[in-house]
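batch_manifest entry 22 of 60
target: Subtilisin inhibitor CLSI-I
source organism: Arachis duranensis
requested by: lab member K.T.
priority: normal
notes from requester: please return tokens only, no post-processing; we will run our own comparison against the previous entry in this batch. if the run fails, retry once and flag.
--- input ---
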Amino acid sequence: MAEKDEGQGSANPPLEKPNEGLPMSYNQLMGSNNPKKTSWPELVGTTSEEAKKKIKEEMGEADIQLIPPGYSVTFDFRSQRVRIYVDESDKVIRTPSIG
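--- output ---
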């Protein structure tokens, strides 16, 4: 009579809550319970002034940087920085996001 293995002695026992302890969002990672946008895809195609105004309305503490064509940026992450990439006609060409 073969007994069914119930996972006893296995190297990886099943987890009751597999996602427990993992950050589920940027806000949880940053220790904030206040839901806040982290990107603004709806601003692609708008002018930089419209984009800055909208971002400041939703994230007043944002450090907004306009990035014209051909400019280099650092790769460090800053939780208050939002970069707005614009083309020669001052239109937003990439989704502005925190970073």
